[in-house]
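User: Fold this; tokens only.

Assistant: Input:
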Amino acid sequence: MLGAGGVLTELLRDSVSLLPPFTAAPSRRHFGRLRVGKLLAGYRGRPPADVAALVQTVLACARYAAANLERLVELDLNPVIVRPAGLGAVAVDALIRLEEH
């Protein structure tokens, strides 16, 4: 699931689900369709966000999930701070829960 994090998740009800496998193109399109997509594109004089880095973060999570499919119970990055274009994206908190064998 992709969408705004924190309280914006409930407030905006602005999220989409992608079913793997997927590539960068669908991820980028879905971010553009979200209400927060306007913020990512640059809004009210703010610089555009590093959507390329955000997409790479999503793809890395999908690769991790695929590689750990048999044990993965939950994977959550929240929040992810998307810096201005060229400066990357930073996952501030991550939760990865694996099933114990």
